[in-house]
UniProtKB/TrEMBL annotation:
Organism lineage string: Bacteria, Pseudomonadati, Bacteroidota, Sphingobacteriia, Sphingobacteriales
Record's protein name: DinB family protein
Residue ranges of domain DinB-like in the record: 14-149
Stored SUPFAM superfamilies: DinB/YfiT-like putative metalloenzymes
Transmembrane parts of this sequence: none
Length: 161
C-alpha cells in the first residue's frame, strides 16, 4: 500500500477511536436524542460512518459488504433515524467503526479494489471519486466532518437532555 493510503486509514481510525471515546459516557437514550433543529442523532452518526465507508469502498469496487445489507437503508446518505436505535445496535456500530477500517487495510493489501466504479459525491457537487485511493481520502475527510457534527450534537444533547 502507498504511504498516503496508509496515512488516510490511520486518520480514519484515529477519528473513529476519538469518536468512540467521546461518546462513551452517553446513555442509549442520549445517543438516540435528536436535538431541536436536527434530523439525526449520535447513534445514527456512527451508523452513517460505517455505511458510507462500505458503500464508497466495497460496493463501488464490486466487493461484498462486510456489514449486513439491512443497515444500508438505515444509515445511508439522506436517511434519518425512523425508530429508536437499541443498545445492541449501538454496540454493533461501535464495533464496526473499527473493524471495518481494519478489514479495509487487509483487503487493500490483497488488491481487492482494482475494479472501482467512479462515483460523484452528491453532497459535494463536482467531486468524483475515481478510484479506491480517492475513496479512502474522502472517507478520512468524511469521518472528520461527522466527528465535528458529533461535537455539536453532544453539547445539545447534554443541554436539552
Amino acid at each position: 500500500m502507498k504511504n498516503k493510503i496508509v496515512k488516510n486509514i490511520e486518520i480514519s481510525k484515529a477519528a473513529r477511536n476519538k469518536l468512540l471515546s467521546f461518546l462513551s459516557d452517553l446513555t442509549t437514550d442520549e445517543l438516540n436524542h435528536i436535538p431541536t433543529g436536527f434530523n439525526n442523532n449520535l447513534a445514527w452518526q456512527m451508523g452513517h460512518l460505517v455505511v458510507s465507508q462500505q458503500l464508497l469502498c466495497y460496493r463501488l469496487s464490486g466487493n461484498e459488504l462486510i456489514i449486513e445489507k439491512e443497515l444500508i437503508d438505515l444509515y445511508k446518505n439522506g436517511s434519518k433515524p425512523e425508530r429508536y436505535i437499541t443498545a445492541e445496535e449501538i454496540e454493533q456500530m461501535k464495533g464496526y467503526l473499527l473493524s471495518t477500517i481494519d478489514q479495509l487495510a487487509i483487503d487493500l493489501a490483497q488488491n481487492k479494489f482494482d475494479n472501482y466504479t467512479p462515483y460523484t459525491i452528491s453532497t459535494f457537487p463536482g467531486l468524483t471519486l475515481a478510484n479506491i485511493d480517492d475513496a479512502i481520502a474522502f472517507i478520512a475527510c468524511h469521518d472528520g466532518l461527522h466527528y465535528g457534527c458529533c461535537l455539536g450534537l453532544k453539547k445539545l444533547v447534554k443541554m436539552q437532555g
